[in-house]
Design a protein that fits this description.
The complex is a heterotrimer. By secondary structure, chain A is an alpha+beta fold. Chain A has 8 helices and 14 strands. In chain B, the strands form 3 sheets. In chain B, strands 2-1-7-8-9 form a 5-stranded parallel β-sheet, sandwiched between helices. Chain B has a 4-stranded parallel β-sheet with strand order 4-3-5-6, sandwiched between helices. A two-stranded antiparallel sheet of chain B has the order 10-11. In chain B, α2 packs parallel to α11 and α7 packs across α12. Classes of the chains: A alpha+beta, B alpha/beta, C alpha+beta.
């Protein structure tokens, strides 16, 4: 029952290891002013973004995007805070897409998956969300604690292998570090993914235009609710499973079927955070019909028992797509034909009104769907 | 049955019919009406399902002192933080984790290395004590009657010797009286909390209705339950009556859950204390009785909390007015600016059931 | 967090029971539920404790109220289920509230229901 950053694995390219580290190492930081990193900083949403801005973007943002570079076709840099970065080479004929992810999850083996599967799927999905569905290769850096049973690591690495096979990608380089006993809470796996794409095929999370249909590739909230239940020792029976899976095949089917204008994988902070980011970056509104968002019955029920909205917790095998309205049905059909996409649905559309915000039609009335303010905590009293 | 029934309590068509009826009643009343509910879960249901956008102009439904976490006084949080810093395992509900005391929250203490565990149930806190026989486990117990009765049940059942309770439990009825007596209060009807009334029984409100001549309707938490409760209150107001009505009969009876009440009063007694942002209220805090002193953390430990300086911004905070039903969050100059869920100034922003936090998250009553 | 979903008791072991809440199982304590609870009963849960046994018929009756709203005969339904039996009267509202409205204190309501049927404000007096 230890509290840990479980529903909230680092899944942003810029994610820094945020857990329980005192902010230090900068002469301007006053270590005595009492500010420390909290779990909320690792939960996605506004808290994470402000930490990333303060620590990373403020230092590296300008160098990554020198004047004019950001406008170059096929280029995505650090300040965009997309799922990865993109770098045009060979005179702009091709862009190299790069993403990295550190994974810590408690427990390391959970209902529906394990940290190995998660660490492959997380990086493959970040690439896929940018349109790269046939990655060149992944790296794997493993940090483990002295005393970790090798059988556990065997199981995790075997799971990585199987997931790589499923995604059609290979791990080609890596690193292993062993920490002293008590210096780590569990295994940490970093994977970096690299791929190549024609600049015109690159999809960002900022491409929505008013009128675009919003699609989700399947049920929402599975990973976050399943892990929270497991991790907090909530004894909710066996019906809750993470959705962790590589979605590059599904994304390929979608992008082949029609014009996908924007894409993002709804990991930390869930669908709510993802939609708010997509709306904010494109300066459009997004309207969602709550009743058309697919949610597994058991996940919905566990969410009610825990007082946690499935829309605000992580998914690890899903993608959110903005699609040209003329192509929406064709793309939906293509996704539903994929084994991971049978529950896909059109859940809303981008609008000119409410720029930067997400409006949820509950069936009763309309309200904003906001980003969660920190890590999801059960409400009891 | 459970699934089907629950879905039926969420039927938007029936909701619109009740909302039409509310419209008609408001037209008939012909003047603004202020209703108050006293339960964070009512506020959650109203906000989450977007029910406010179904209600006519002139009908305000506001949350009074209905969030037990919000009204928990900062020094009570300080006590829990001090116990955690002194090496006890402090177990608490998720609601309380991020709530700041004068010198910090349990989340801050956890970030600094203290052992803070989030539990879903009082019995999980007892399990922690059983699993850690060498450690003191303190359950920082918050909530109204609905969680006080379970806390009482585990003390009555005889928990392990390393287990104790730091009670911040609150008792609602006296707080309703305080709100009714506040000079600026203008409440035309109370929507009473269905689950608290499941324990206490709706008969408890009889004396209140008689004394203050304000109608009280007990309501449930599904969208239709909430709307029906509002509709029933408007019937009373339109008729010019101050009556008491149970609009949640599937859970609430007149006498309540007598077994739970017996257990609760066996373990707890009322005492006066400060409700954050409201007032010092007589008989509205629940303290562990002397017979159970062995499990009372305040008896067992010398708690010496760090007391921080109060945030100077609190002087500009209008939480008191919000909980008295005379203001909405967006009338506060700090709302969403200096006062946010990450850096709450006042009580209403600290909990996920606080009015300000809910308004910030769901947009209050936006014109969408 | 007050949860409206009732749980169905699957098995009982002393003070504890397994209950199913809408496809999810959870252990609930029965210490303070008050009534004798059997497998198959529905209970209201709060923070891991059953706080009330919910008779099936009362759930069905509440559903009837809401269905009645759709059909425009809610007054009858409310009366039938006994919601209005619970109404206790303590005289008129203060004039400040009642006066400016279209009806006098305690006077008959001439309102019209959503479907145009007259609404008899007196029928819910519960006596």
């Amino acid at each position: 029952m230890t509290r840990n950053d479980a529903t909230t694995e680092g899944t942003e390219p810029d994610a820094v290891e945020t857990e329980r580290e005192v902010v230090e190492g900068d002469s301007e930081v006053d270590e005595d002013d009492g500010e420390v990193v909290t779990l909320a900083h690792g939960a996605g949403g506004e808290a994470t973004r402000s930490l990333v801005d303060q620590l990373v973007v403020s230092r590296f943002g300008d160098a990554a995007n020198p004047a004019g570079r950001a406008a170059e076709p096929g280029a995505v840099g650090l300040p965009e805070l997309d799922d990865g970065s993109a770098h045009p080479i060979s005179g702009g004929e091709t862009s190299i897409v790069l993403t990295t992810d550190s994974h810590v999850v408690s427990p390391p083996i959970f209902p529906g998956g394990d940290i190995g599967r998660l660490s492959v799927a997380g990086t493959v999905n970040d690439l896929a969300a940018m349109g790269v569905t046939d990655p060149i290769a992944l790296t794997c850096s493993l940090v483990v604690e002295e005393g970790t049973p090798t059988a556990t690591l065997e199981a995790i690495m075997e799971s990585m292998r199987a997931t790589c096979e499923e995604a059609g990608v290979a791990i080609t380089t890596g690193d292993t570090k062993v920490m002293g006993s008590g210096e780590l809470d569990g295994p940490v796996i970093n994977t970096t993914g690299i791929g190549a794409i024609e600049p015109g095929a690159l999809v960002t999370d900022a491409g929505l235009s008013p009128g675009d249909a919003i699609l989700v590739s399947g049920t929402i909230g599975d990973h976050g609710i399943a892990l929270l239940s497991e991790r907090e020792g909530f004894d909710l029976g066996g019906g809750l499973e993470s959705d962790v899976a590589p979605v590059n095949g599904l994304v390929a089917a979608a992008t082949d079927a029609g014009e996908v204008t924007a894409m993002k994988d709804p990991t930390r902070g869930g669908l709510a955070t993802t939609l708010n980011e997509m709306a904010g970056k494109a300066a459009v509104g997004v309207e969602i019909e709550e009743r058309s968002v697919p949610i597994d019955d058991a996940i919905a029920s566990a969410g009610e028992l825990l007082g946690i909205d499935p829309l605000s917790v992580a998914n690890e095998g899903k993608v959110v797509l903005g699609v040209d309205p003329d192509d929406a049905e064709a793309v939906l059909e293509a996704i539903r034909d994929h084994p991971l996409g049978e529950n896909a649905a059109i859940v809303g559309r981008a609008t000119e009104d409410h720029a930067g915000r997400v409006v949820l039609d509950t069936g009763f009335g309309r309200r904003y769907l906001s980003e969660p303010a920190g890590e999801a905590l059960p409400r009891i009293c | 049955m459970a699934t089907d029934a629950t879905l039926q309590f969420r039927d938007p068509d029936a909701a619109r019919e009740i909302a039409d009826r509310i419209d008609a009643l408001m037209a008939d009343v012909g003047e603004p009406v202020n209703l108050m509910h006293v339960c964070g879960s009512h506020e959650q249901a109203i906000a989450k399902f977007g029910l406010r956008s179904m209600l006519p102009e002139g009908l305000a439904v506001r949350m009074g002192p209905g969030c037990p976490v919000c009204v928990t006084n900062m020094p009570e949080v300080d006590e829990a933080v001090a116990l955690a810093e002194d090496g006890a395992i402090v177990a608490t509900y998720g609601d309380m984790y991020r709530v700041p005391g004068t010198a910090g929250s349990l989340a801050d203490a956890s970030a600094a290395g203290a052992d803070v565990e989030i539990v879903y149930s009082a019995s999980e806190a007892v399990e922690l004590a059983e699993e850690n026989p060498g450690r003191e486990v303190v359950f920082f117990a918050t909530g109204f009657e609905t969680t006080a009765a379970p806390t009482a049940a585990i003390l009555a059942a005889g928990p392990p010797g390393n287990f104790s309770v730091l009670s911040a439990h609150k008792y609602v009825p006296p707080a309703m009286e305080v709100v009714a007596e506040l000079p600026d209060t203008d409440v035309d009807g109370f929507l009473a909390a269905g689950h608290a009334a499941t324990i206490t029984g709706y008969g408890l409100f009889e004396a209140f209705v008689e004394e203050y001549e304000i109608p009280v309707v007990v309501g449930g938490f599904e969208p239709l339950d909430v709307l029906l409760g509002i509709e029933r209150l408007l019937e009373h107001i339109d008729d010019g009556r101050a009556g008491l009505e149970n609009a949640y009969p599937r859970c609430v009876s007149e006498e309540g859950n007598t077994a739970a009440l017996e257990t609760m009063w066996e373990v707890f007694e009322t005492t006066s204390g400060e409700w954050r942002g409201i007032a010092n209220i007589p008989d509205a805090n629940l303290a562990v009785r002397e017979e159970y002193a062995a499990y009372d953390a305040r008896e067992r430990f010398e708690i010496d909390p760090d007391v921080g300086a109060a945030d100077p911004l609190t002087e500009r905070c209008i939480c008191g007015d919000i909980m008295a039903g005379t203001a909405d969050p967006d009338e506060c100059e700090l709302f969403g600016e200096e006062c946010t869920p990450r850096n709450p100034v006042g009580a209403c922003m600290v909990s996920s059931e606080g009015t300000c936090k809910i308004w910030l998250e769901y947009g209050g009553r936006p014109d969408l | 967090m007050c949860l409206g979903i009732p749980g169905e008791i699957l098995e009982i072991d002393g003070h504890e029971a397994r209950a199913e809440f809408w496809n999810v199982e959870k252990t609930v304590r029965l210490d303070i539920v008050g009534d004798a609870v059997e497998v198959g009963d529905y209970v209201l849960n709060h923070a891991g404790f059953a706080i009330r046994k919910i008779p099936d018929e009362e759930v069905a009756e509440t559903i009837e109220i809401y269905e009645a709203f759709l059909e425009g005969d809610e007054e009858e339904a409310l009366e039938e289920i006994g919601a209005t039996d619970a109404t206790l009267e303590f005289g008129s509202r203060p004039a400040a509230v009642a006066e400016p409205g279209s009806v006098g204190a305690g006077g008959p309501d001439d309102g019209v229901g959503p479907d145009g049927t007259p609404v008899d404000g007196g029928s819910d007096d519960g006596d």
